[in-house]
Amino acid sequence: MSGQTFDVVVIGGGPVGEVAAERAAMGGFKVALIEHELFGGECSYWACVPSKALLRPGNLLAAAKRMPGVVVGDALDPAQVLARRDSFTGRGDPQGQDHGQVDWARGVGVEPIRGHGRISGEREVTLSDGQVLTARHGVIVCTGSVPLTPPIPGLDTIKPWGSRDATSSSAVPARLGVLGGGVVGVEMAQAWARLGAQVHLIITGKRPLPRLPEFAGDLVLAGLRADGVIVHTGSGIDEVSAVDGGGASLKLTGGEDLVVDELLLATGRVPATGSVGLEVLGLPTEGPLEVDESGRVSAVDGGWLYAAGDVTGRALLTHQGKYGARVAGDSIAARGRGEDISTAPWSRYSATADHHAVPQVIFTDPEVACVGLSEAREGSADRVVDIDIAVAGSALFADGYTGKARMVVDTDRGVILGVTFAGQDVAEMLHSATIAVVGEVPLDRLWHAVPAFPTISEVWLRLLEAYGL
Q1: 380 is in an annotated binding site
Q2: What whole-number distance in Å separates Cα of residue 302 and Cα of residue 10?
Q3: Where are the domains of the chain?
Q4: DSSP-based three-state secondary structure for 123
Q5: Is 109 part of any known ligand binding site?
Q6: 236 has binding-site annotation
Q7: Which helix or strand (DSSP H or E) is residue 361 part of?
Q8: How buried is 397 (Cβ within 10 angstroms: 0-12 exposed, 13-18 middle, 19+ buried)?
Q9: Is 228 labeled as ligand-binding?
Q10: What's the pLDDT tens digit per position in 132-164?
């Protein structure tokens, strides 16, 4: 492989890199995809897929218990839940955990190469074994993100869980401490509590999910407590020390002492730019790679370096990263063919949705699903409409159904800027909200989108009625 030339070289073989490579290959280019761990990346083996596999059985059991006449057991079978999770991540596959992804890459005309790739010059990537790959048209960096470790005294005396440990553990810890009330923190706290762990969730504020509307955090907080999660609000960890025989002693903010068998650090992630070789280009090795709307790294002359996904710092979500990868892959292919492309908003070569319509689901019970803005813009005439999810469809869906919905409206243009749903199984309503935001559907036209009866989607009609239509 030494000295081999490709049209495009992609560093990072997770979902984002795979999509970027595929799109470039679809443009007729010879593409190399470099991955130093498993092809398929974080999402496939340690994040989105296994976490949702852990959450789904508990959500299903809870939903069944809310329906009179359905006879169910009182607990999950952890062994079966963990085995089903492993079936999704390929653990124990005799052909290799990621052989399916390798076969897929070759099937779409992409050459998968194992190794750690670093940029070593203009349009040049050097692998950990010394091989040098040259890219005729460009390099796309899709290295994702890495966990952010907080500076807690004594943390080095134990081996804390990261998100990978939380999603791949082969046993249920008796006592689990979780630091952080973001998405990973709340999802893993509920998943392991429902599998039998005594879970302590430690958060700094009054409620989890502080970036979302308060009602979303309050509903998730109630759901966690209903599952036995002990939530320490307004708290943190001031010091950690190892316990003889295993485990950790935590001194919480305020003086409370807590002993756990495992401590999950769910304190955020940062772009993985430290080992890409950016210093060769005079770029910082910390922080995101800033890109233009087509995915091209703005600070590099010659327009040959692109990036997509978490490494850009735009929206640390797999689906949004894959969206950016489609844009970057298409853009590098079109420019390589000599085409004059448009990066105007909402064009095929512009990742416009990163700024206006980022959808996200928190797969707790209750779920939270949101897209676009969750608050009115400062100094604007935007209007926020909040209602309970209380329609015939929700009453039939579950006894005691509790949920809320928010719609943020640009009153000057009469279009929706954002929607937030919180309640059991609201995730499947999110794409309708995303279409409304991306399409800037006028409210007086949306009025004619008649929701089927009796479904939870009737909440759309109630939102429009509350607005005054």
Answers
A1: no
A2: 17
A3: 5-40+98-146+270-353, 155-267, 366-467
A4: coil
A5: no
A6: no
A7: strand 359-362
A8: buried
A9: no
A10: 999 999 999 999 999 999 999 999 999 999 999
What angle (nearest 5°) sits at the alpha carbon of residue 76, between those of residues 397 and 219? 45
Residue 214 tokens, joined = 């308060």
- Does residue 106 come out as left (phi exceeding 0), alpha (psi in the -120 to 50 range) or beta? alpha
**Is 347 annotated to bind ligand?**
no
Q: Give the Cα separation of 101 and 182 in Å (integer).
A: 30
**Would you list the DSSP string of 257-312?**
EEEESEEEE---EEE--TTS-GGGGT--SSS---B-TTSBBTTSTTS-EEE-GGGG
Would the pTM count as exceeding 0.90? yes
Q: Is 145 annotated as a binding residue?
A: yes
Q: What is the pLDDT of residue 375?
A: 97
Confirm whether residue 321 is marked as ligand binding.
no
CB hemisphere CA count around 95 (13 angstroms): 7
Tell whether residue 143 is among the known ligand binding residues. yes
Query: Under CATH, which architecture does the 155-267 domain have?
Result: 3-Layer(bba) Sandwich (3.50)
- Residue type (1 letter), 441: V
Asked if 404 contacts 462 with a C-beta cutoff of 8 angstroms, the reply is no
**Which of 202, 150, 197, 219 is closest to 369 using CA atoms?**
219
Residue-wise pLDDT for 195-231, tens only, equals 999 999 999 999 999 999 999 999 999 999 999 999 9
| CATH of range 5-40+98-146+270-353; options 3.20.20.210, 3.60.160.10, 3.50.50.60, 3.40.1390.30 | 3.50.50.60
The C-alpha angle with vertex 415 and arms to 412 and 420, in degrees rounded to 5, equals 120
Is 254 a known ligand-binding residue? no
Is 434 marked as binding a ligand? no
Is position 130 annotated in a ligand binding site?
no
Structure tokens at 17: 């890199």
Cis peptide before 15 (omega within 30 of 0): no
Tell me which residue has tokens 């790294």: 297
Mapping DSSP to helix (H, G, I), strand (E, B) and coil, where does residue 139 land? Answer: strand
